[in-house]
Design brief:
This is Ribitol-5-phosphate transferase. The chain has 11 helices and 26 strands. With about 525 residues, it is of the alpha/beta class. Among the domains are: about 180 residues, Alpha-Beta Complex (Spore Coat Polysaccharide Biosynthesis Protein SpsA, Chain A); about 170 residues, Beta Polymerase, domain 2, CATH 3.30.460.
């Protein structure tokens, strides 16, 4: 069989890629082994030097320094790399921070890390280096990956403007972390003496619900153990732990770091001492620069939350931050196929911003129906959610209400929809659905989260319709379930539902439906209770 030129070229490209992957993997393994040896006090020769993006020489390891005494009192190479990640290009004290640490501990590698080359350029003292994370097409991949440029056992994460006054403070942190052994405490922190004290927090991250919750943590006599920090602090972490995180140096650093460590069950111990000084506080000399910094942190937080799949933050002061959809943006998921929204395939439930929009729309629609004299009741999955949760089912993507067809002329928003859709004064879109003979109320023109209104009429004591969908719950039912309608809590309001909800639901879904929750189309995606 003859091989064409294109086939040969493709084969060569594949072989070249495999060779590159092999050598990168081998280099990573050697780097990890070298770190472990350094941690045991193995002596090394002079540190290698790598030239990174922008022609900057970057220190990638620490060499042996005679007479340097480590945490155990033995002479060996440095065990810690000082790393500064959080600073602003337009005003910073990175050079001063590097000078302070290198004056007290000249043997320590000092690494400033930036996404792109800072402008104006940083002025760094001898021994301090800059690492640019953005890849460059003329550089090998390891040139911009921080794990290739730290060969010490530990990393000390320091904020901008901090100073090292006591050379032995770092050894104190090392002893504290080593004293924890292999327990859940994987980070040790020391406060920075600033205007606002650093606060220990508890952080619970629920990826399935797209939510992170912060709450204050109590302080102990020998230091606080918690899952997150708020405020200025210096943090010591093992290098291996740091670079086992999926995003080791994301920004904002504390948000990125503690979300990932909390998901792994790691804890941070906040010591009362040693303390690090910070003469440069506030960091910015003008209100304008402070505003620029705050804006950049806000933007970086939004990008971080999007990449982590978090849409709702509950802060320790009770405030909330939202990073999902709104009335002015599209909803968080696209067109639903096979009754299974895309987030279920990610083992996620309905994003909280979408649930919030559904609750607002439901409350709005029900208020209009009641004030217009339109009889309605909770239908299908919405009734099931009311019975189980007094709310929308956590993975549902719309709300269903049944209405009496004969009451439609009572409602100004519904009675003329045959001639088109209506955008009301509050931005809600009322329309006759294109999928069938029912009505739909959307959250907005941009955001298509919606409440569906299903018109029924009685015939010989049976509630029926002229057209039907393929949903198994879309069936006729006796009118006596609606005589009378009964109030029930739902989505933060009181709505009306059938008077015998169990019998009604089992007629539509089958026996035991209340006690046995399942996703809408188990053939496509089945709820795995073992993941709860």
């Amino acid at each position: 069989m003859r091989i064409s030129f294109c086939q040969g070229l493709l084969t060569g490209a594949i072989i070249l890629n495999l060779l590159i992957l092999y050598y990168v993997s081998r280099a990573q393994q050697q780097m990890m082994e070298k770190r472990k040896e350094l941690g045991r006090g193995t002596k090394r020769g002079a540190p290698p030097v790598s030239v990174l993006g922008g022609g900057l020489g970057v220190l990638v390891g620490g060499g042996e320094e005679p007479g340097v005494v480590g945490a155990e009192g033995h002479s060996h190479g440095p065990r810690v790399t000082v790393l500064l990640r959080e600073f602003e290009n337009f005003e910073n004290y990175v050079g001063d921070v590097a000078s302070s640490f290198l004056h007290q501990r000249p043997e320590l590698p000092f690494l400033a890390v930036a996404d792109t080359s800072p402008y104006p350029p940083l002025v760094l003292p001898e021994g301090a280096r800059l690492l640019i994370l953005s890849p460059s097409p003329d550089q090998p991949p390891q040139a911009h990956r921080p794990e290739f440029h730290v060969q010490t056992e530990f990393v000390l994460l320091v904020p901008d403007g901090v100073e090292l006054e006591h050379p032995r403070a770092i050894e104190r942190l090392i002893r504290e972390l080593e004293g924890e052994g292999g327990g859940p405490v994987r980070l040790v922190a020391a406060p920075v003496l600033a205007r606002s004290a650093v606060q220990c927090l508890h952080l619970r991250v629920h990826l399935r619900e797209w939510t992170a919750t912060y709450s204050p943590a109590a302080s102990g006599s020998s230091g606080s153990v918690c899952t997150a920090l708020q405020g200025d602090a210096v943090i010591l972490i093992r290098t291996e732990d740091l670079f086992n995180l999926s995003v080791p140096l994301g920004r904002p650093l504390f948000s990125s770091l503690f979300i990932q460590t909390a998901l792994r069950g790691w804890k941070v111990k906040l010591l009362e001492s040693p303390c690090f000084s910070a003469n440069h506080r506030p960091l910015f000399n003008s209100a304008h620069n402070q505003w620029k910094a705050d804006t950049r942190v806000k933007d970086a937080t939004g990008k971080l939350m999007k990449s982590f799949g978090l849409k709702h933050l509950l802060l320790p002061d009770g405030k909330e931050q939202w990073y999902g959809c709104s009335k002015e943006t599209p909803r968080c998921f696209g067109t639903v196929q096979d009754d299974t929204p895309d987030y279920l395939y990610l083992d996620r439930w309905t994003p909280p911003c979408c649930l919030r929009a559904l609750r607002e729309t439901t409350k709005y629609v029900i208020n209009i129906l009641e004030s217009s004299g339109v009889r309605y009741w909770l239908e299908g999955g919405s009734l099931l959610g009311a019975v189980r949760h007094q709310d929308i089912i956590p993975w549902d993507y719309d709300v269903d209400l049944g209405i009496y067809l004969e009451d439609v002329p009572n409602c100004d928003q519904l009675k003329n929809l045959d001639s088109g859709s209506l955008v009301d004064a509050n931005g809600y879109v009322w329309e006759r659905a294109v999928e069938g003979d029912f009505y739909r109320v959307q959250y907005s023109e941009a955001n298509h989260l919606h409440v569906d209104l299903w018109p029924f009429y009685p015939r010989n004591g049976i509630m029926t319709k002229d057209t039907w969908t393929e949903h198994k719950q879309d069936v006729e039912f006796p009118e006596h379930f609606l005589q009378p309608l009964v109030p029930m809590p739902f989505a933060g309001i009181t709505a009306y539902g059938p008077n015998n909800h169990r019998a009604f639901l089992e007629l539509k879904f089958g026996e035991g439906v209340i006690e046995n929750p399942q996703y809408p189309n188990p053939a496509k995606k089945r709820w795995d209770r073992t993941k709860l």
